[in-house]
Here is the input.
Amino acid sequence: MPKIELKSVYKIFGDNPLEVLPIVQKGATKEEVLEDTGHTVGLDDVSIGIEEGETFVCMGLSGSGKSTLIRHINRLIDPTSGEIIVDGTNVMELNEKDVLEFRKNHMSMVFQSFGLFPHKTVIQNVAYGLEIQGMKLEERNEIALNQIKAVGLNGFEYQYPAQLSGGMKQRVGLARALAPNNGILLMDEAFSALDPLIRADMQQQLIELQSQLKKTIVFITHDLDESLKLGDHIGILNGGRLVQVGTPEDIILKPADDYVSAFVKDVNRAKVLRARSVMLKPDDFNGRDNKPVDTFEVHEDVFIEEFLPRVLQDRSTVIVVDSQGNSKGQITEKELANALKKSE
Here is the structure.
């Protein structure tokens, strides 16, 4: 069972959403509904399953419904129709008190605007969720200090938010979300307000933390490069509709429609595609020697950009191996050329 599951979720904003719902269910577009009824379609029949321990990135242009989606998971927004299942619990069946308890014990959220308390120090901000849970001061400070260290803010424990840069503030927000050790981390445009270099640093920080913590992360962004870098799976929204869900490789190599194709046409594929996604498997060698003379090995998870220069310089063939060193396939210049060719 997925950790998080949305089943046929619709969200319509306006005075009479239930009256408009049948129109949307019959296939009217977001633009048609707005023109005919004055209502706004936030989500249109969205169904997804997010597995435990994965990073699921939801992306789309402004107004596509991605922030609306993430706010359904913790019931900051209630759907017009549909089910939301988290850890096997139908959150729509929870009363107001139970919803608060559920949020407190199951998930944390990181916002684009940081959301720090200006009158609290870094350690007080990070420990806030633990304080709400009723944890004693000494214990919550110990946990907070560990999280501050994990995000690289040693020495800033007793500074106030006004004394921090934007990137440092977002690190505090991330540490605060991690401190309660909840299984689910919701991140709504968490890095969008940061400068490019700081943003790249925060992305790498998240990747490194996730490799250790294995949280279930739902990450919202409008940036394709960010989604491809962070996501185990990516969901692309257009006008409230989920038009494609897949791995980064799926999105790049098999775009579902023209909307997705337009997103990915200028992507540097060498930074996104891994050896495993472009290799020839043994059954596809067509009688060629499985291990040509000029070869070198790479792990199946390595990105193309890491071994491309050597292939071009030495005209070598790449032998793709798994973590045990077993051969999984091979890559020649021909496979690389086909993989890196942009979509027509």
The chain has 15 helices and 13 strands. The two ends are 38 Å apart (CA to CA).
